[in-house]
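Weekly sync notes, structure subgroup
Attendees: PM, AL, DS (notes)

Item 1: joint prediction request from the bench team. They want all two components modeled as one assembly rather than separately. Inputs as received:
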Amino acid sequence: GQQVMQIPQYQHVQEGEDFTTYCNSSTTLSNIQWYKQRPGGHPVFLIQLVKSGEVKKQKRLTFQFGEAKKNSSLHITATQTTDVGTYFCAGYLGNEKLTFGTGTRLTIIP
Amino acid sequence: EAQVTQNPRYLITVTGKKLTVTCSQNMNHEYMSWYRQDPGLGLRQIYYSMNVEVTDKGDVPEGYKVSRKEKRNFPLILESPSPNQTSLYFCASSPSLGDSTDTQYFGPGTRLTVL
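Output from the run, pasted for the record:
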């Protein structure tokens, strides 16, 4: 079954509000990647986290990797309409397969 | 321009009619992979290839075949498509696998409908 879960599945926020999606794995991840898929588009790589407890920022986006390397989060501050899309986490479960999470679809209410 | 291309982008077919979705990358990447995307299930890996002539099953390989005769091409073959293979398919490539700098580059997607 799905070994990398994301919550929530859907999130509707007012423009300007913050947004967070959480990624949880049943096993330890060697690293984790985050992707964004715009409506009608294909997944595009955002960032990769490798170290336990790592935090990285990209403008209004903050990515965290848990201490146990089993969970991760993506936080967007003050959302804008350009943030619309589905956000996926993806992790290497110690083998050569990259397992994607179920995704969180973000919609923005102007 | 560095890219992954897929063809066709859209396809409507009937049950049992063999089809091939092509995938090509111009970045000299070693690793290539096929995913299907279904609502609520995210991206699930069908097959992947670490290099030429090296392929392996992903999470949902049933009903699919692949080949990797050349580094740049990784076609997905459905010998006898069924309606449960109606989905959005993505091909992806990366320089290698597991390296901390490697990311996956996705093609534009192929929307397949099997009637």
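Discussion: The CA atoms of residues 38 and 87 of chain B lie 6 Å apart.
Action: AL to compare against the crosslinking data before next sync.
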